[in-house]
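Form 12-C: Joint structure prediction
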Amino acid sequence: MAMTNLEKYDKAFMVNLKVKKEQLPGLKYQGIATWDSVGHMDLISDLEEAFGIMMETVDVMDFNTYEHGKEVLAKYDVEIE
Amino acid sequence: MDYVDILALAPYGIGREEKEQIVAERLSWLTAHHREHCADYRKITDGLGYKEGAKAGSRDIPMMPVRLFKERELLSIPKEKVFKTMTSSGTTGQQVSRIFLDEETSRNQQLTLARIVSEFTGQSRMPMIIIDCPSVIRNRAMFSARGAGILGFSMFGSRRIYALDDSMKLNVEEISAFLEKYQGMPVLLFGFTFMIWKYFYQELIRTGVKLDLSQGILIHGGGWKKLAGEAVSREEFKERLREACGIQRVHDYYGMVEQTGCIYMECECGHLHASTYSDVIMRRMEDFAPCGVGEKGVIQVLSMIPTSYPGHSILTEDEGILLGEDDCPCGRKGKYFEVTGRIRNAEVRGCSDTYEQK
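Section 2 - Result
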């Protein structure tokens, strides 16, 4: 069965930042050791690949929490429900 | 003026008078801020004869000699607020600068870099080839100047590969496959001048490998410094790279770990430009009076960013010449200049050139 957007979104976080599903709500850039600038680039690359989009530099920097990331992706017509 | 408002201004759109006002106001505020929060800075600026409350122009802001950041730990935040420490490059046995960043300063550095570089690359990110080896960013808590430069620029890359492996060997096959995949698209290349020359350009020549980088934009910094014996002029660097791989757009930049974010990019006319967010003043060796246009002096760099460490006004150990202000043929406003080298007797210190040869 195909993954939903939310599942893809969560998976990118869990794989790249090495976190569990229950850690996702409230997760913040620089809030945990693995979500540093290196982890951030890996996460963004994976999300771009998963959703077939290419984000602009300002949006890459604006993408700073698990929740706000969904709003950033909405700009690229990716709906995370 | 808050830094967020300064950052909203166009990177190269502010003329002389308005710029002086912004610089003087922001830097006076930063001077007062650091005097309040860093006891060492207060002592040093007292020693330099700084008068609190005096109306200061940009040229009156006290200058911190760059080597003080090697000799002391200078910070204006409690130690527990430090989340990243950056170090300058230095060869074995040399002391390195230690620069302490909190969340705000680090973020402002990134945003500033993005504002400046986007003026040259556009808003869109591009596939990116980093001309260095992956091990340079492996220690994530403590970044060297090289690692910091690579990380800072990584946000302009959509897909990234490293051109070198950890033994500094050129990954020709991987690069070719990458270029094939993104054929016809602009590709960003980033690296340090000396590394590009030694491990990329010279390797292409030695092996006769042909890469088509006609769609490439190369941004490089760090200079030659220690390897002045091997140095080629900026023009020759460009010309030889053009011959070797067809790359048309090459931009050098001047910057240092003590003022990360505020880099000075080279324009299409070959001039280094101060952006809205920073400034340069060339100083005479004899009395540190500001130099006029065309006169060689020691470079003082001013950055409107740092609140976590007192590095907003630094006297470097580099020499340069102010070429003009607001009237570069490229159309960008602000000062433009060239860097001519190191001051005599300055400790040898470079960015890309401290890679220890094995």
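Section 3 - Comments
Residues 5-74 of chain A form a domain with the Non-ribosomal Peptide Synthetase Peptidyl Carrier Protein; Chain A fold (CATH 1.10.1200.10). DSSP finds four helices and no strands in chain A.
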